[in-house]
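Homework help board

Subject: predicted structure for assignment chain

Our instructor gave us this sequence and asked us to write out the predicted structure in token form, then describe one feature. I got the tokens but I'm not sure how to describe them. Can anyone check?
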Amino acid sequence: MSYSDLPGAKLRVGAFARGLALGVASVAAVGFGAHSAQAETRGYAVSWFYMAAESQPDDCPEGTNMLSEPMARKIMTDLGKTPAEIEAAFKDYPSNMYGQVVMRGKVNGKPANIYTNPTSEPDPMVKTAKGHVAYGFNLDGKDGPNDFVDPQTGEHGVDDMAYRALGCFITQRASGGQRPTWPAIEWDTTRDQMPAWIIEISGIERDANGKVKDGDVKVGFYRATTPVTRNAAGDPQADMSFTVDTNPRMQNVVHATLHNGTLTTDPFEFYMIQDPFAVAEYHFKQTRVRLTLNDDGTLKGVLGGYQPWLPVYESFAVGGPVNELNLSVDAAGIYYALKKLADAYPDASGQNQYISASYWIEAVPGFISHPNAEKTSMVVGPVKLAAAR
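My token output:
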């Protein structure tokens, strides 16, 4: 049992925690194997999680997809609207346009809601990314023509078809570790009501000089019972206390290897609940995570794996015309692109249900406690997604 597993115990991680961990060495985490008496446990609150875009100038050789205004004009033209009707609709764009683009699909010859029936219009053939630079992992052990090279590790064969599907929409593009515009707003909007995601790393050892040693560690990814607290800049406040939600659907524990301050997990299956405003539920198969323990106490890295592509589409469709006309995205186009580029776990018809994807993870230090630790197993097997969908 680790110090943070004791009932009511809370372990703060950061500059202070480095000293504290040495003081509680006799009760520190042991991890997956035998560790010395100076093993530490560190906790973090996730401050950013979204697709790890690494946009390149040559990603979209035919240009990016249409911005919302020309896209709306095309939709109105395809619907048979006259130039006068289109100009009248654009007098208060986009406010009086929202209701005019919803029922543009056709089912049995009748108008249909395009967001709940994306196949009710032909594939608009949106532009997809053609580049070969992306953060992530070689998930299938192959190096194919559609794969990427990780700019950080140099690994070839990186699988990230989700970026190919979305990489030519202007609001999804970013590089150099920056955050794409809309996802950053979407993530920020949910912070005040969505329970925080938290990370715990146990079994960290130091040498005689206080340097973190290479070796085996245990990593836990959990959802907390409360949201983050904001600091004066509006970002998640470091050094706050969180309690792990005991729902096993939001607990993921995996072995990892720490080398030169960066840990890499074994492959595992990852489940997490986010927020209906964004992606309501995450499920990754063949998940791998690479995280760097920074000197300032923060954590940053990449998660890669295969995720169901339909929830990714739903995250755009849930906003309906508001998303399309303000974010310059084509909902039906995203549906078709994700479906075509999905690259794993086919159903009986042969249609792949999962798509490879890479996500940034950033986190700040915090306290983590485990309620009823003596009654709750920390290592849980894979569980099924909710059947509500």
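Reply (TA_rk): Your tokens look well-formed. For the description, you could write something like this. Confidence is low (pLDDT under 50) at residues 1-36, 375-389. That's the kind of observation they're looking for.
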